[in-house]
Design a protein that fits this description.
globular, 26% helix, nine-stranded mixed β-sheet, alpha+beta
């Protein structure tokens, strides 16, 4: 068994819904029950990637995606002559068990797709446009999932840890003004965990955004991800009158651009190889340009 780890950056506002909302937002995003942090379900990631790979195979074979889907879901393929479909069956699984000459060629997928957990969340800053916020809970969970021993300590209320006070893009006289909150910045001189975390994500977010990373307390981070997502009002136009239809006004919540998540792929057999495309679409509203993401494979692998 082996594990591969990926970072995922939201390029355009992303909506994966939790169904009908009971609050002021009609269509909220899906969140963790115990933290209220936004996350991306592994089922959504797997479903999107499965559809992409089916389309690729269909294009190569000059067939319709529905034909590949039918062969894959029903196990109607030959593992020798249909190696591309057999590979999809290993990675994504089939709807039922397919048996060929007494040998199982279908069934459950041999690759497990984890949920994607939040790592960095953008918050509007009085200087430098925005900060990329995180918190000790998020960083420590990241290290734990990676199998690393590093941990960071709690951050005091109204304090924020940064890698370098001199180089940080958001500081005003040693303070951070994020939305209506004011934090006193502390340089993480002895905080090896924060430095290691920024080392992991730095190449992916870029040199400029590395200077925007801020570690606030767990409670403050929860406030940011709970209250400062993007909410848009959507309308449906009545084609006869050219005005908003009576039931055509609703609000929809989005994870903002620049957010960064973390997920893993677990390969139950070491001979299976798969890597997601660098960019793809996730969630709804593709026709309005929403939900485009990019991924980066971390150079950390676990094999057993």
């Amino acid at each position: 068994m082996k594990k591969e780890f990926y970072l995922l950056k939201v390029l355009t506002p992303l909506h994966i819904g939790a169904g009908q909302g009971l609050g002021h937002v009609d269509l909220p995003i899906v969140r963790e029950v115990y933290t209220n942090f936004p996350y991306l379900p592994g089922t959504s990631i797997k479903g999107v990637l499965r559809n992409l790979e089916i389309n690729k195979v269909a294009m190569r074979r000059k067939e319709k995606p529905s034909q590949i889907e039918d062969k894959l879901s029903k196990g109607k393929f030959n593992s020798e002559t249909d190696k591309d479909i057999a590979s999809l069956a290993q990675i994504f699984g089939t709807a039922g068990e397919a048996v060929e000459e007494g040998k199982e060629v279908g069934g459950a997928s041999k690759v497990l797709f984890s949920d994607a957990f939040i790592l960095l969340f953008p918050v509007k800053s009085a200087k430098g446009v925005f900060s990329l916020t995180t918190c000790p809970y998020v960083i420590n969970r990241f290290f734990e999932l990676l199998g690393k021993e590093e941990r960071i300590k709690d951050v005091a209320e109204d304090k924020a840890k940064v890698l370098s006070i001199k180089d940080h893009k958001n500081l005003i006289n040693g303070k951070l003004l994020l939305e209506e909150f004011v934090f006193e910045a502390e340089e993480a001189k002895e905080e090896k965990g924060l430095r290691k975390f920024i080392e992991f994500v730095g190449e992916f977010v870029g040199e400029e955004n590395k200077k925007r990373i801020v570690c606030v307390g767990d409670t403050e981070f929860k406030d940011f991800v709970s209250n400062y997502t993007e909410v848009q009002t959507r309308i449906k136009i009545n084609p006869d009158t050219g005005t908003v239809s009576e039931t055509g006004l609703w609000t929809e919540e989005y994870i903002p651009s620049e957010s960064v998540f973390f997920f893993s792929l677990i390969f139950l057999e070491n001979n299976i190889n798969y890597e997601p495309p660098k960019t793809f679409h996730l969630g709804g509203d593709i026709t309005t340009g929403k939900g485009f993401v990019k991924v980066h494979k971390l150079g950390v692998n676990h094999e057993k």
